[in-house]
Amino acid sequence: VQLQASGGGLVQAGGSLRLSCTASGRTSSNNGMGWFRQAPGKEREFVATVSWKGDTTYYADSVKGRFSISRDNAANTVYLQMSSLKPEDTAVYYCAAALTAAATTSKERYRYWGQGTLVTVSS
Length: 123
What we know:
The chain has 123 residues and is an all-beta fold. It contains no helices and eleven strands. Strands 2, 4, 5, 6, 9, 10 and 11 form a seven-stranded mixed sheet that branches. Strand 4 and strand 5 form a beta hairpin.
């Protein structure tokens, strides 16, 4: 499975962005999907995850109520809608496909990773 993330950019605090992640290759696998982010000098951290069926989602406390994850299995695409963005949301955002169909917050349970897309939030 190859993952291509897009949609990053520069936005002012309080603004919105929508990230997309499109899968190609062996997309017949039923994978839970997740978004992670890594800020300069920090470890990669969990942001959001959605199950294969789209009926279960989890969010990091820092983004709950501001970010929304969704997926369109027909288009092999996962989205991350980000609103009320803050400067501390600045990071490279990575999408990932999990080993199972469940939504999972654990980085270790993700097998495939995209290349990342940079989100910069100015104050």
